[in-house]
Amino acid sequence: MDSGKTHTAVNLILGLRRDRHRVASIKLTGTATGRDLWKTMDTGACVALDFVDGGHPSTYLCALPELLELHTLLVSHAANRGADWVVIEIADGLLQRETSALLQSAAFCNTVDAWVYATGDPLGALGGLSTLKGWGIEPVAISGLITMSHLLMREAETVTGVQCM
Q: Which residues 6+ apart lie within 8 Å of 82 measured at CB?
């Protein structure tokens, strides 16, 4: 929590919007809060959706089949609203039950073109990327709160070999 995931998602949306793409924002897992959706709408997302739009006040204790169905539903809504790209944020904590299940699911992972890992420090980057690599996921970048310090960014890049931006 508070690793900079929403900030990272907002900046991805801004970058894609600058290239004139229609971008949707989806917060797939977590506990309901309007703040994150409002931030992504403020960046110009063509639609901002979360699990509440799929009928869940929280995804806590949702089974993998429910999460996959929710994912399909929300991406379909985004496509119906004209999105060229979809930026999806999932709840933090790679070891959290629901997050771990999604990230180890081929049905979910095969729908993702690129991964960005948000973290607050180099050790979190090293541990997180090691865990993700074990699951066959190789993020294209590290971001999040770690970007508030050039020293931390350099350390993370050195130990992981992944660019921090």
A: 22, 46
